[in-house]
């Protein structure tokens, strides 16, 4: 028997159009994501109001993808810094204890 997914159906409004969204996320979360996309589309439209709806959607997707990439790049840098700090800390512990420190 297949696993049953708890699906929610939410009607969202993005840039004046209604879209039925079905997913297993909380309806408030789905509405929040849709509101974010709607806001971004309105921002892009205010900068270039003569664009067709499909081009506006693509420009909005590129804008959101750019934000995501920038945040992922920041997270990657932070992860590397965390690794370097842990390596440094382990090295200092090795020196202080006089023996190699191993993590199982």
Short summary:
This protein has helices at residues 27-47, 53-97, and strands spanning 8-14, 17-23. It is of the alpha+beta class. It has one domain (8-97).
Structural overview:
With 104 residues, this protein is of the alpha+beta class. The protein has one domain (8-97). 63% of the residues lie in helices and 13% in strands. It has helices at residues 27-47, 53-97; strands spanning 8-14, 17-23. A two-stranded antiparallel sheet has the order 1-2. β1 (8-14) and β2 (17-23) form a beta hairpin. The protein is elongated, with a radius of gyration of 23 Å. The mean pLDDT is 89.
Keywords:
104 residues; 2 helices; 13% strand; alpha+beta; 2 strands
Query: How are strands sequenced across the largest beta sheet?
Result: 1-2
Count of separate structural domains? 1
What fraction of the residues are assigned to beta strands by DSSP? 5-15%
State the helix count: 2
Main sheet specs = 2 strands, antiparallel
- In total, the number of strands is 2
Radius of gyration: 23 Å
Poorly predicted regions: none
Compile the SSE list and pairings:
Blueprint lengths: L7 E7 L2 E7 L3 H21 L5 H45 L7
Antiparallel strand pairs: 1-2
């Amino acid at each position: 028997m297949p696993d049953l997914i708890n699906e929610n159906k939410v009607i969202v409004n993005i840039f004046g159009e209604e879209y039925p969204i079905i997913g297993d996320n909380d309806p408030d979360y789905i509405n929040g994501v849709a509101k974010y996309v709607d806001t971004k589309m309105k921002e892009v439209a205010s900068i270039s109001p003569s664009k067709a709806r499909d081009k506006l959607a693509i420009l909005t997707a590129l804008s959101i993808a750019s934000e995501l990439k920038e945040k992922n790049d920041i997270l990657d840098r932070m992860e590397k810094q965390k690794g370097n700090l842990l390596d440094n800390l382990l090295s200092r512990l090795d020196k202080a204890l006089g023996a190699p420190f191993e993590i199982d």
